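Reviewers of the previous submission asked for a worked example of the structure-prediction workflow described in the proposal, so we include one complete record here. The input consisted solely of the amino acid sequence. No template or homolog information was supplied to the procedure at any stage.
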Amino acid sequence: MSQPVCRWGFLGAANIARKNWKAVRMSGNSVVKAVASRDLDRAEAFIQECSMEVPPVIATDGVPSLQRPQAFGDYQEMIERDDIDVIYVALPTAVRKQWVIAAAKAGKHVVCEKPVAVNAEDAAEMVAACTDSGVGFIDGVMFDHSARLPMVVQQIHGSEELGRLRRIQSHFSFCGDEGFYERDIRTRFDLEPHGCLGDLGWYCIRLTLRLMRGVLPVSVSGHTLASVDDGRVPIEFRGEMQFPEVSAGFFCSFRTANQQTMWVSGESGTLTMDDFVLPYYDSECKWQVHRPELQIDNCRWNFGRHTAHFAVHEHAGGEEDSQEVNLVRRFAQSALDGTPDPADAEIALATQRVLDAMRRSDASGGKIVDL
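From that input alone, the workflow returned the following structure tokens.
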């Protein structure tokens, strides 16, 4: 007897959708049934190019067989299909709300790329539409589904090596190439109004919320360091979040080299990670705990390095145990079982609320904004 499979429809043919195409293939409980784009030829090309590298497979009566997904040139037509369970929304932020709500009204579960909306009010409407229809909503933050993150959270809050938590700092950046600002939608206010804050800062905010076990900051501040499109789109941004007894900060940029680092400081030690968004290519996901020691004895001053290394056995990407595959597998199973987890939507809304507060602070010249 064949196992049930979750049928996915891809709304948009963005580059990140190619990674999720493979994640669906590797999940073991999902298939891509359709891809929609405003341009039918683009949908056809996306299917063809992805299929060349990762052929789509569906089990028919327990026997694996190839089945080519159908291309659509109309979003609504694909959404209304009866043979699709999950809509993956890989459209620009400015147009996501309309299609998330349309998918929810059609009874489809929704995976939405980030940032999920232009503002928290829109995000709340999107989530409410999913809740009213009894379908799940989740954003595309893959590291939420790594086995590494819960182990790090446990170590931060229950380790004598770190002591009481005091500071969280993260940095996510890449340097856009020569034509980046002319062709990339992340620099256009009409499509991606939050620029690097939405594209990169979302991960820094989410990481902080996860490390704080879902607690929202009491206040935030934010400041655009560089911008484009008449100053409306940040391409370099710094933010601060204040929690009771803990402060957190981040830097995100389209102007500095690839970096995905985070460090967490306690009273006794520091935990660091070099690749918190996309793990370095490996079969392990790693982190370190440092407890340097300063020894002073008259004229002798020594700063001793004391570092312990930790890892979970988990591939960085494209394998059955990778974080993006875990996301697809888990969400698909909840869709098949009819048991969406409301915590998925709650953390997405919380992230959007913090991002919104950052933008309000930035607009006021960096003033502190209470949540």
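Residues 38 and 73 are 5 Å apart (CA to CA). We consider this example representative of the routine output the project will generate in years two and three.
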